[in-house]
Amino acid sequence: MASILVSEVMTGTYEFEDSGGDSVKNLSEAKVDVEYTIREIETNDNELKSFLFTLGCYEGETVTVISVLAENYVISVKDARYSIDWELAKAIIV
Amino acid sequence: MKIALTGNPNSGKTTMFNAITGKIEHVGNWAGVTIEKKEGDIKKNLNKTGIEITAVDLPGAYSMSPFTSEESITRDFVKNENPDVIINIVDATNLSRSLFFTTQLMELGIPVVVALNKSDLNEKKKTAINVKALSKALGCPVIKTISTKVSDNGLEALISKAVEVKGKSQTAPYDSKRIDFANAKAVEASDKKRYEFVNSIVSNVEDRKVSSNHQTKQDAADRILAHKWFGIPIFAAVMWAVFSISQTHLGPLLADTFAGWIDGLYAWTEGMLGEGVSPILSSLLLDGIIGGVGAVVGFLPLIMVLFFLLALLEDCGYMARVAVVMDRFFKRVGLSGKSIIPMVIGTGCAIPGIMATRTIKNERQRRTTAMLTPFMPCGAKLPVIALFAGTFFDDAAWVGTTMYFMGIAIIILGALIVVRITGEKNARSFFIMELPEYRFPSIKRATISMLSRGKAFIIKAGTIILLCNAAVQVMQTFNWQFQVVAEGAESTSILASIASPFAILLIPLGFGVWQLAAAAITGFIAKENVVGTLAVVYSITNFIDTEELALVSGGADVASVMGLTSVAALAYLMFNLFTPPCFAAIGAMNAEMEDRKWLWGGISFQFGMGYVVAFLTYQIGTLITTGSLGTGFITGFIAVAVMVGYVVHLVIKGNNKAQQKLKMSA
Lengths: 94, 666
Hints:
Chain B: Mg(2+) 2 binds at residues 18-19, 21. Chain B: It is found in: Cell inner membrane; Cell membrane. Chain B: Keywords: Cell inner membrane, Cell membrane, GTP-binding, Ion transport, Iron, Iron transport, Magnesium, Membrane, Metal-binding, Nucleotide-binding, Transmembrane, Transmembrane helix, Transport. Chain B: InterPro entries: Fe2_transport_prot-B (IPR003373), Fe2_transport_prot_B_C (IPR011640), FeoB_GTPase (IPR050860), G_FEOB_dom (IPR030389), Gate_dom (IPR011642), P-loop_NTPase (IPR027417). Chain B: The chain crosses the membrane at residues 225-245, 293-313, 369-390, 396-419, 457-474, 494-517, 524-544, 564-586, 598-620, 632-652. The structure holds two protein chains of two kinds. Chain A is an alpha+beta fold. Chain A has helices at residues 2-12, 46-54, 86-91; strands spanning 35-37, 40-41, 62-69, 72-77, 80-85, 92-93. Chain A has a single domain (21-93), classed as SH3 type barrels (Roll). Chain A has three helices and six strands; from the N terminus they run H-E-E-H-E-E-E-H-E. In chain A, a hairpin with a 2-residue loop joins strand 3 (62-69) and strand 4 (72-77). The radius of gyration of chain A is 15 Å and the shape is globular. Chain B folds into two domains: 2-208, 3-Layer(aba) Sandwich (Rossmann fold), CATH 3.40.50.300; 231-477 and 485-665, no CATH class. The termini of chain B are far apart. Classes of the chains: A alpha+beta, B mainly alpha. At the A-B interface, helix 1, helix 2, strand 3, strand 4 and strand 5 of A face helix 3, helix 7, helix 8, helix 12 and helix 17 of B. Strand 5 of chain A pairs antiparallel with strand 9 (432-434) of chain B, so a sheet runs across the interface.
């Protein structure tokens, strides 16, 4: 059982891809306290996309990363704070 | 007349519902606490019309297009049940998001009144909203409210305005009626325009001095409380403090006073019965009912202190941060951070906890969470924890804290196994959660929450638990020939003969006697019964002593009556905590899982987990404390090996399935 646990933790560790220069592509590479304009939500999950839309998180709107906590990002959209995970941050193209 | 309360999650709908109806529904400072609609009549002092007005509290929604099942409850209600008026509760600190939903509600043709709630928070942030201009722009009345305040909260004005607009027509400020809803592109374009329209209103009516995307003290607090490394130790320390106060310090102090009253009742009843009453009846009344129920109710003060503290934690906004901290670990095992919400609610009672799994979209995650939520020690299990902590471990706070973290550890392990069995380890999911603002917790709300939970506890003790204890007492008094069991021949009683076969199975766990088996069995009806039945079968009138200021009178005496070592006692405690929950909670699991295979798999898993955990605790603990293994090691080991072997077999099968899926998608 212990070995399963270890392997799960190992495979679960995300590998951060090289961002390739200074240009920030998505929210996971964004600098804290800088306001970005969303260019696209890159996902096949239409439901997620629509849900983000109802929160005011869609192309043309602005978003600011407030803090980075382990694998979660605290972001400010409209006048609220949300915690999103790394995968979602990667899907928000700025 | 019917009024629907609608609004974004955590805008304060249930707080307002409680304030206008006088009901005490569960509230919390986080999104998604309400998952079902609730109805109540509006209080007379707010309703001057004389007509009966029913308020309907609905789960929070961000829009009319439902993304979660509780959002669709809201949409279906306002669309199908034709409320006379909609009160749209708008979080005044977040106008730009909330008004999106408001403009959608106004298209329904039902008169809308906007309650601009949390307006007190805006004053603190120096944000001003021009209510008149907002009302004009929307085309509906707007009333400032602060539903957490007792007076001067705008609620009376809100209700009279709602009565006034009934039957009147309003024009929607933004109308999407001509749009072809089958055309996704057109809908998207229309919704974007809607947001533009909302933005233009907000820029006209809102005067914001401090932009919301600047760092605040709250953000600094988040960085500490949800920190990568400190998050978990802080959570552990908070839980330890909760247990220390409720189980070691304040709780026992109150419990002592309370136990004095129960002792008094016992003595008074004994005196009233006098000499002439049949000994069977008097023992049924005294030992069975007052003794058994009293033993359970004696723990009420401890539980109420604990509920009070948990309510404070929920109210201050900390729980949403706990979800963020746990997300990292839950994601590793195929659950989402949202799974923590049912588990936190499950600390009160597993049933609403299991029902809260509805907020999880992914079916497998939802079922897994419903199956694992009962591992969190609920309110009914607290008397059991308190009894064993008091009897065997000198009221130590670590016992309760450890049980919570054991629960979390078992949940994580369980999720890991389930995700492997289902072969869906490669499935991806996203996590997003609104972080509510921290606030100073309200003593009043915590008190109300504590009292309502305490009341439910007393009602349960006076009904189910009373009946069970009476039944246990009768079954213990008589044998199958309905003759009174002779002294020294207790093992011939009905109770003993039913429980004995089960007791044999429990020998490898260190507590293979019929009394303990009987208590564990009655625990499936309600977990408090474990305490009540132990009191009856060992005829201990009261676990709590008034003289010594000790929670459990002569802990050593009780321990010796039960004939358990500390290690076996800990094993017994864990067995009771981590086996399947009570029948009512199993019923809730059935309802939320909607699948027989999952239900029976879940129950078997819970049985297996309880057995394995108790076995390991007893055998390893005995090995450490005495240097040799406990009784029945070999048989128990075989049983555990078979169970683990079967799970491993299922995991391997699941892995193959996962690989096939990968190949198919490749």
